[in-house]
Design brief:
Elements (H helix, E strand, L loop, with lengths): L1 E5 L2 E4 L4 E8 L7 E7 L6 E7 L5 E3 L7 E5 L5 E6 L8 E8 L15 E2 L3 E6 L1
Parallel strand pairs: 2-11
Antiparallel strand pairs: 1-3, 3-8, 4-5, 4-9, 5-6, 7-8, 9-10, 9-11
């Protein structure tokens, strides 16, 4: 499977952006997909994830109530709607897919086996 993230840009604090991650390739569907972000000089951190079948969602506490993860009905695109963005949200955002079993470690980057290239989100204060 190949993942292509897009939708990043420059936005003022309080603004919104929607990221997209196109899923392609002939491999079997993922069991889950997620969004992670990495700010300059910091470790990659979990943002949100979704079970591909059933659609159960998971969020980091820092984004609950402001971000929403979703996918289209054809299951070819993953989205991350980001509202009320804060300057600390400035980071490179990555989408990733998980083909193995879904466990309590769905929030850990090492659980994911495929990654897209990042898309840069810059939030100005």
């Amino acid at each position: 499977v190949q993942l292509q993230a897009s939708g990043g840009g420059l936005v003022q604090a309080g603004g919104s952006l929607r990221l997209s991650c196109a899923v392609s390739g002939r491999a079997s569907r993922p069991n889950a997909m997620g969004w992670f972000r990495q700010a300059p000089g910091k470790a990659r951190e979990f943002v949100a994830a979704m079970k591909w079948i059933g659609g159960h969602t998971y969020y980091a506490d820092s984004v609950k109530g402001r971000f929403s993860i979703s996918r289209d009905n054809a299951k070819t695109t993953l989205y991350l709607q980001m509202n009320n963005l804060k300057p600390e949200g400035t980071a490179l955002y990555f989408c990733a897919s998980l083909s193995g079993a879904i466990t309590s470690t769905i929030h850990l980057s090492q659980s994911y086996d495929k990654w897209g290239q990042g898309t840069l989100v810059t939030v100005s204060s």
